[in-house]
């Protein structure tokens, strides 16, 4: 591999890394907005909260109602948030543990 090709690959990988950091920063900003009560029902939830690995499987023990089909309870920003997995919208916000 010549020097130009190697340099081009390194630049490309650097750009990918920056895009990942930007996406993470955007999700962190959204979580902080929820902490400050800026996010409301109907707002977009960070994409990572639509994944099944972030859902609260113990919603009953936390005093939450059963999530309707296509939704899941997640916890972020110190609150319980009911998220529509298909549309990534917040459907309900409940106080969490502090």
Automatic annotation (TrEMBL):
Keyword field: Signal
InterPro entries in alphabetical order: RcnB
Signal peptide (from-to): 1-25
Pfam families attached to this UniProt entry: RcnB
Coiled coil: none
Protein name per Swiss-Prot or TrEMBL: RcnB family protein
Organism: Pseudomonas typographi
Lineage: Bacteria, Pseudomonadati, Pseudomonadota, Gammaproteobacteria, Pseudomonadales
